[in-house]
Automatic annotation (TrEMBL):
Residues 539-558 are annotated as: Disordered. The keyword Lipid metabolism does not apply. GO terms for molecular function: aspartate-tRNA ligase activity; ATP binding. NCBIfam families: aspS_bact (TIGR00459), PRK00476.1 (NF001750). This is Aminoacyl-transfer RNA synthetases class-II family profile domain-containing protein. Belongs to the class-II aminoacyl-tRNA synthetase family. Type 1 subfamily. It comes from Patellaria atrata CBS 101060. Keywords: Aminoacyl-tRNA synthetase, ATP-binding, Ligase, Nucleotide-binding, Protein biosynthesis. Pfam families: tRNA-synt_2. One of its GO terms (cellular component) is mitochondrion. The keyword DNA damage does not apply.
Amino acid sequence: MLCGGISSSALSRASSVWNTYAEISRYARSIGLVKGIPGRSRANAKYFFQNSSSKCRQFLSSAKSLSLEGSQYAFLKNYRETFHFSSPTLEVKDLPNSQVGDGVVLHGYLGKRSDLSKKLSFVTLLSKDLSHSTQVISIRNPERNHVHERLKSLNVHTPVVIKGILKARQDPKDKRIIDGVKPVLGVEVELRDIQCLNEFPSDIAIEDTIIPPQQRHLQIRTDHTIRDALVFRARTAAICREFLGRLGESLLEVETPLLFKSTPEGAREFLVPTRTKGHAYALPQSPQQYKQILMASGIPGYYQIARCFRDEDQRADRQPEFTQLDLEISFADGKKVMDLIERLLASLWQEQLGITIDTPFQRMSYEEAMSRYGSDKPDLRFGMEISRIEHLLPVDLISKIGPLTDPIVEVFKLHVSENARETARFITEFMDSSQSAPFQSNPDGQPGIFIYDPRKPLSGLQAFGFEAAERVEEDLDLIDGDLVVIQARKREPLSGGSTPLGNLRLAIHKAAVVKGLIPVPEGFKLLWVTDFPLFSPANDTDPGQGGGAGLSSTHHPFTSPASAEDIDLLLTDPSKVKAEHYDIVVNGVELGGGSRRIHDVKVQEFILRDVLRMTDERIEDFRHLLEVLRAGCPPHAGIALGFDRLIAVMLGKETVRDVIAFPKSGKGEDLLVKSPNKVTTEQLKTYHLELKE
């Protein structure tokens, strides 16, 4: 034994290389070096420290510096002090329900502080959800000097525990809700103690500044509209689950896998590589195939608030990952699904917005929507309906607005102002702006624009000729200052989601609203758009199903024809087949789409192989579904509602990014966490991948 009872083996251990703080701590405790820790006598430790080797003394000196009292590790002491904190006796918003004189413990964030003197300060305490605030008064006195000084040392936005006494307070003159924070009236809290739970550093500037998306956490903390949207979103999800859950066993909430396989449903997919060489998962574009499998599995009905993924170009209402309210019912057709969704949406509008929505919703065919509004998701809150007028127009006018021979020519009007000059000024500014670029470069011709002005020959419609001008004036019920727009298009069946004139209609209307020339549309108009074509011409923009027929499924390749007559057309003219496909539209936004599905395996394979002319290899990607349908699958129908869009529409938001906690940018990036990130060489090796220039 050496050094007052310390063994030679211990000394040898102390003289060796000590690699971890845990070893240092254990050794220091073993010799009683740390105050208050049982072990060998402090006298022995002192003797050991003074008489052992220099390396041993150096080690023990380092061990002593690890004490939480040392400035180098003060952060550990601070953390230890926040490790335990008192539970709240109530929430800030509930303070008026307590008795004056009661002791209270509150959790929240410090707001702005006002120091009236060295001895008196007032500070706002914000509730945990930042929705309510109360006033805290701090008085410096011999008993609580340290509390008062601690309060004054803390920055705004610091999370704290406040202990105090509830006092009566005269209400301030200004009782406004400012920045979404509702003041608690009638009471205040006299401070007795305060515990800081974490520092909010002074170098983070969030007051009177625009916070970038790279600091999304601070955007959420400082912008109550984002927090309110997230609360609204959570409540809406709960209402949906409660409503659908009341249907009992006929509709079950089922989670479907996120690691799926690549199948040509219509959109580009995100692939997930695996360590099995040459194999990858695909993230699901929707739970479509799994929910059809559930219908064949004897599940009477299914719903899910599901995450979905599509690698497509970004727009205001699109995200690479998004949320759907997904639904499927067996032994059902489209009408049953539509009736259920109408009841659900009417319930949401009533409970969340206090607005009564009449049911059943208006129904409009795809052909009618495209013809009257130039869109398959028309906003019915304003007019500007489109009509055909090529039969009225002189040939020379048709030739001036475009290169097409025998085109369809359509027209709409907008009343911008009773002053024709103001209308002319507005449309000139619009056509000179970048907003008009797509319409100026339309290969089918530029729009023809006229302003109705009774002070001019033929009221400004000279190019129409006498008879046509008179008919247009009568049919459109023109008045002074009306804007009249015509546009030519090819004489062929309507396809796609909009026409150039339909897009121009929306752009001009939006510009007039921004200028304050016409009012912002109000209210909600819900409708079903039905009878879509089952197939659309293939294009280079969307991958579709990659068949060789020059056709793609308008919705997806599992959609059923609408009628017996449409089934017959599959053999003679597939391009004319109508689908039992229905979109729910609100204020010009497609909330979702659904359809009756093909439940017969022979019909499904016929669509894939003979109509779309997919290759055998691609058809095999659907072999699992074909086998499921072969096993006596019942008729079934369903729908998927874009949950992000639903929330945005209900709250009147321009973009779904405003209702998503952590949205992706226009480039599909999460600027806060910096995703996606580059793949490392080691990761590439793990998944048998290599990068190509």
